[in-house]
Predict the structure.
Amino acid sequence: MRYFICTHCNAIISYETFCPSCHTSLNRATIKQVNLCPHDGTPVPVRSQLCTTCGSRLGRWYIPFWAWWCIVFIVGLLVTSLLIFLHHSLVTTYQQVSCVLENTAVTTSSTKNGTSYFLDFTYTVVGKQGQQVANGEDNMGLEGSFSSQDDAQQALDRYQIGSTHPCWYSPLAYPHVLHLKPDEGNTSLGWATAWLFGTIVVLILARWCIVRWIVAPWRISKYGVKASGTVVDHEAFKGRVTTTIEFQTQTEPPLTCRTKQHDLVLQGGNVLRHVPHLHSKVPIFYDPLHPGNCAQVFIRPSRWDAVVDMLIGFALLFLLVGGGGGLFIWWAFLFR
């Protein structure tokens, strides 16, 4: 993992303008880039591939942060293209048939903005050979609503019970019956945009889920290192207290890191739940590869805790990928 560190105090830098430890103004002359050994967190120069502490050889490949965004965007474009292709392919499943109207009605929908009126048909789909194909009850793809019941009834009078109308039927797409055949080359720009950004959001959340709930608990339970941290700041917001803790890694040279504890609660102005006092010492358990992320305060997680977190992570990942993918595919089958 690649990090920037301050050359004055060896503090790990995130996106600050000043070093959070020594308050040095950060520029190219006051920061340097290092890799951290995944086993013990020893800082290794970027051009070196060997950890001087444990002798482990670091991987030679590294993907910059901007490259991850490019990969996510490209995958989003590929998924969107596949969904557009699927949507266009489903148009060919519509076949021209006849619909015999068995009943007609005007339905209403009331909201806080008023009442809208819609057309509703009960019909039988008849194939070209006269065989009954399907039954249905919907608006047969006729878009739009009416502001008054008289206007809706006037439009409904054009469709007499027992009359036969040409329509398009598909056993796969929805709705199954349309009054007009959908345009083969027409995919809503709004749908394509929703597929693209929806895929990007799902990928970002999936990556967060993997790192936070699967990789991090496993690594900190296996490689977690104990250190002594100092409380440097308290922030109270809406009844919750965020504690900032600074600690030094057990490496040579040591690195200065900061982590935050978010699950601390205020009640009636009094701090509850063993909140450490400002400038007090607290034990920290951190991941050598990600010393500032997901560090545990007070208690090192056990393997059982890691297994529970990983199960939660897999469940969230299934919901994200399965739910998001299922929703996007359902949209591809939808014609309006």
